[in-house]
Amino acid sequence: MIPETKLNSQYGLFIDGAWRPSADGKTFDSFCPATGDKLASCAEATSQDVDAAVDAAWKAFATWKKTTVKERATLLNKIADIIDAHTDELALIETLDNGKPIRETKNIDVPLSAAHFRYFAGCILAEEGTATMLDNTTMSIILREPIGVVGQIVPWNFPFLMAAWKLAPVLAAGCCTVFKPSNHTSLSVLELARLIADVLPKGVFNVVTGRGSRSGQYILEHPGFSKLAFTGSTEVGRSVGLAAAKRLIPSTLELGGKSANIFFPDCQWDLAMDGLQLGILFNQGQVCCAGSRVFVHEDIYDKFVAEAVERFNRVKVGLPWDAKTQMGAQIYESHLKAILLCIEQAKGEGATVLCGGERVTEGELGKGCFMRPTLLGNVTNKMRVAQDEIFGPVAVIIKFKTEEEVIKMANDSVFGLGGAVWTRDVNRAIRVSRAVETGRMWVNCYNSIPAGAPFGGYKESGIGRETHKIMLEHYTQQKNIMINLGENPTGFYP
User: What pLDDT sits at residue 1?
Assistant: First the structure.
C-alpha cells in the first residue's frame, strides 16, 4: 500500500492561471513504478490547448516584461518559501511518481529546487547593464531584455528539480513559459502549479501535460515561441534543435551522457568507493551525467573490483518511501527491460556480470520495476555497453595503465556531459579535468549539482548551460542604445 498524499485524483491543464480539461477531454494515467498503483489522471493537451497556453503567455508577457527585478526577485523568493514549507509533501509525491528514494527527494530534489529560485532572485538583483564612452561624443548602452514566451520540456528523471532549473531563470529574466513535464512524471510539477497559482500573474506560467509524441510535438511545431529549452535524450534533442532552427529561434539543450569516472592509485579509498556508488546508483542510475564508465588504474584494479562488488551487493533496494531504502524503482517496465537487454547484449560481446544484472522479483518488490545494482567486467571501451547511454544502475569497469591512455578512452565518446577524477595529486586532477572533453568534471566527488555552477555538455551532450546566471543571457536578448552626445552634424549632406 502506497502512503497517502494530498494528490488530486485528476488534474487538468494549468493555463492562464486556471485549471481546465483538454479540448477533447482525453486523459492519461500516472502510475507508481514501485507498485503499479494508479496515482492520478492528467489531461492530454491538444494543439488547441497549446495554442491557448501560448496566447495566454503572450498576453501576460505584455505586462510581466515590465516588472522590475526587485518585483520578480520577491516573487521568486516567495516561491522558494512555498517549496520549503511543503518539502515533505512534494518529496513524497516525487518519490511516488518517479520511484526514487525519499531520502533523495527530501534532501536533494526539493531543497535544491528552492535554492535555485533564491539563487536567481539574487542574480537579477546583482545584474548590471553597461554604459561605455566609445569616443568623446558616443555613448553605448547595453541592456538585456526578456526574449518572450519560451517552450520548456523536462524529462522524467528529475521532474521537480528540472522544473526549478528551467522555471527559476525564465521567470527571473522576465519571460513567460509554456511548460511540459514528462507524461510519466507530471504530478510534482502540477502540484507546484497548484501551490503557486496565486503568486504569479495569470499566464506567466502555464503547464500542459501529455505524451511527448503528441503534446510535446505541438510545442515543437508551434510558431509562437521565442525560444525552446529541453532536457532529455540526445535523440529527441536533435528534433528540438531542428525545430528551433527552422524558426530561427534559439534553443537550450541538456542531453545524454556516458561519463567517465576515473580512479588513480592514490585516491582516498572510502571516498572513492562512495563516489563510485553515488556516480551510478543515484536515482537508480537514471541520470544523464551518471558515472557509467568506470576507469580503474591497473595497480588497484583487483582490490577495487572486489570491494566494489561487495559494497554493491550490500545496497538496500526497497520501496522508495522507506527512509532506509538506498535505491528505488526504475521509471517503468519497458525501460527496465531495455536496461536488462543492454546487459544481455554486453554479455554477448564478452562482458561478465560481476554483480547484479537482474531485476528484483522477491516479495513486495516483485510488483514494481526494481533492479539490482550492476557492475560489468571484461569490458573494452569500444563495446556498445561502454558507448551507449543505458540510463540505469549499470556501470562498466575498464582497466587503464597511464594517464594519457585513460584520457584518450574518456574522450572516445560522442558524449561529453560529466565525469570525475579521484586522486590526491592536485596537479594530476587539474591536468585530467582539463584534458577530458566534457562540460563538467568533479574532483573527488560526484553528482554535486548546486546552483551557481554551470552545468551542460560538450559534443552530443547539448548546447547551453543550466544552474548558473549565464542562463539569464539565454532567456534575454541584448539591446544596444547608441547615443550621440555631440552637437555638430556629420556634414555628409548639404
Answer: 81
Task: Check if the beta carbon of residue 50 is closer than 8 Å to that of residue 215.
Answer: yes
d(CA 343, CA 359) in angstroms, rounded, equals 11
Collapsed DSSP state (helix, strand, coil) of residue 159: helix
**What is the radius of gyration, based on Cα positions, of the chain?**
24
Do residues 403 and 363 lie in contact, with contact meaning Cβ atoms separated by under 8 Å? no
- SS3 category, 330: coil
- CA neighbor of 356 nearest in space, from 379, 337, 372, 345: 372
Per-residue cell: 172: 527571473
Q: List beta partners, residue 145.
A: 477
How many Å apart are CA 490 and CA 172, to the nearest integer?
A: 42
Under 8 Å CB-to-CB from 424, ≥6 apart: which residues?
A: 266, 267, 268
DSSP codes, 231-299: ES-HHHHHHHHHHHHHTT--EEEE-----EEEE-TTS-HHHHHHHHHHHHHGGGG--TT---EEEEETT
pLDDT value of position 416:
98
d(CA 208, CA 189): 10
pLDDT tens-digit profile of 264-278? 999 999 999 999 999
Contacts of residue 428, Cβ cutoff 8 Å, sequence gap at least 6 = 264, 403, 421
Cα dihedral 271, 272, 273, 278 sign: positive
Residue of 267, 288, 289, 355 marked catalytic: 288
Residues of the chain with pLDDT under 70: none
| 279, 246 contact by CB (below 8 A) | no
**291, 259 in Cβ contact below 8 A?**
yes
| CB contact at 8 A, 485 and 138 | yes
Grid cell in block for residue 419 = 565525469
Query: Quick check: is 254 catalytic?
Result: yes
Residue among 104, 254, 460, 466 flagged as catalytic: 254
Q: Cα(231)–Cα(252) distance, rounded to whole angstroms?
A: 8
358 flagged as catalytic:
no
Q: Residue 449: in which H helix or E strand, if any?
A: none
The torsion angles phi and psi of 107, rounded to 5 degrees, stand at -105, -15
pLDDT, one tens digit per residue, over 218-267 is 999 999 999 999 999 999 999 999 999 999 999 999 999 999 999 999 99
Structural domains of the chain, with CATH: 10-255+461-479 (3.40.605.10), 260-443 (3.40.309.10)
Please indicate, yes or no, whether the overall pTM of this predicted structure exceeds 0.90.
yes
Nearest to 246 by CA among 256, 235, 238, 254: 238
Residue in this structure with the C-alpha cell 510535446, named with its chain if needed? 216
**What is the SS3 assignment for 17?**
coil
